[in-house]
Write a structure and sequence with these properties.
The chain has helices at 45-61, 82-106, 132-140, 147-156, 170-179, 183-197, and strands at residues 18-19, 22-25, 30-33, 123-127, 165-169. It has 206 residues and is mostly helical. The strands form 2 sheets. It has a 3-stranded antiparallel sheet with strand order 1-2-3, with no helix packed on it. A two-stranded antiparallel sheet has the order 4-5. Helix 2 (82-106) packs across helix 4. The longest helix has 25 residues, at 82-106.
Length: 206
């Protein structure tokens, strides 16, 4: 692995770098298909992965930031410098949000089916048959592991519809779990009864 240095990956012969639709890899010293290379790279994807692993391990061992091209010292207890720690945190939050939006869209859209709240942070999936714990245990191995890990499993499986799920906001979800019915739905029932009978039948205990 010590051979994976910058000089190792320079073209030895530019005139012979491409041959019959193939490209010369300066890492494994062989011709590969163009699809086996990242754009602008002189080494194939396999060699690139090996190089990344080697550089990561070397930087971690020497207490440097493992981010590509960074030579700053890593923060104590971490593998990145303060600058990249912030960047990686923001990148992770963005990917987590994008995954949640994609999952919610697959099960009805980014809006509560009860109160029509569209604030992404308050939305989640609700199992209409009350078998959410069973579903989470089946996909993640833990009945309490929901959120990003659960969404990732659903995406990997192609967003299956074996379990009946809809999008609820946290208020409607909590109200439904505590009272058996959402307070918004209760208000709608009252409104329909007042319109039909001129009186709130629920308030009369009927």
């Amino acid at each position: 692995m010590d051979g994976y240095t910058q000089k190792t990956f320079q073209f030895e012969d530019n005139d012979a770098s491409e041959k019959g639709g193939e490209k010369w890899c300066c890492g494994c010293k062989s011709y590969k298909l163009h699809d086996d290379f990242y754009y602008g790279s002189s080494i194939c994807k396999s060699c690139y992965s090996k190089k990344r692993i080697h550089v990561y391990s070397l930087n971690k061992q020497n207490g440097r930031c493992v981010a590509v091209g960074c030579r700053n010292a890593a923060v104590d207890g971490l593998v990145t410098c303060e600058n990249h720690r912030h960047k990686y945190t923001m990148r992770y939050k963005l990917r987590r949000r994008e995954l949640k939006i994609e999952t919610l869209n697959a099960y009805g859209g980014c809006r509560c089916v009860c109160c029509f709240d569209a604030y992404i942070e308050s939305l989640s999936l609700e199992h209409q048959d009350g078998n959410g714990a069973e579903h989470r245990r089946m996909l993640t191995g833990n009945s309490k592991k929901g959120g990003t890990r659960f969404y990732a499993k659903l995406k990997k499986l192609g967003f299956p519809t074996d379990f009946r799920m809809v999008v609820f906001c946290m208020n409607c979800n909590t109200s439904r779990r505590e009272n058996g019915i959402c307070h918004h739905e209760l208000e709608r029932i009252k409104a329909r009864e007042i319109e039909a009978y001129g009186v709130d039948m629920i308030a009369l205990g009927m």
